[in-house]
Amino acid sequence: QVQLQESGPGLVKPSQTLSLTCTVSGGSIITSSYAWHWIRQPPGKGLEWMGVIAYDGSTYYSPSLKSRASISRDASKNQFSLQLNSVTPEDTAVYYCYYPGYWGQGTQVTVSS
Predict the structure, then answer these.
(1) Distance between CA atoms of 53 and 60, rounded to whole angstroms?
(2) Potential cystine with 94: which of 17, 50, 57, 106 (Cβ 3.0-4.6 Å)?
(3) Predicted local confidence at residue 109, as pLDDT
């Protein structure tokens, strides 16, 4: 059974970089058949897909993020990470890592000075 756990700071200042890590257990991020995703949910809004990293390291992002997002991985730790540059209060959300059929518990990130 795949388990995912997000970690990272809960408060980020505007214009800074948001960095989150998803630690995976029960499955390998470099051999799994599917890809590993980041998804967020702003307060009062629906889920927003942000991007994905596949087993081979290839990445794809939502155009709405305008190249601010970057997803990477550390195979030795079985982790994948999200960086979101130049954050604004509109980036305040619960951030989830996701693998088809499995969700992390989510982590609240607030962008505020």
Answers:
(1) 7
(2) 106
(3) 98
Q: Are 84 and 25 in contact (CB under 8 A)?
A: no
DSSP class of residue 10 equals S
By DSSP bridging, strand 102-103 and strand 93-99 are: antiparallel
Please give the Cα distance from 38 to 16 (Å, whole number): 19
User: DSSP state, 63?
Assistant: G
Using one digit for the tens of pLDDT, what is the confidence trace for 65-97?
A: 978 999 999 999 999 999 999 999 999 999 999
- The 10 Å CB-count burial string (b at 16+, else e) for 11-37 is ebeeeeebbbbbbbeebebeeeeebbb
CB 93 within 8 A of CB 106: no
CA 35, distance to chain mean position in Å, is 12
Task: Give the DSSP letter of residue 49.
Answer: E
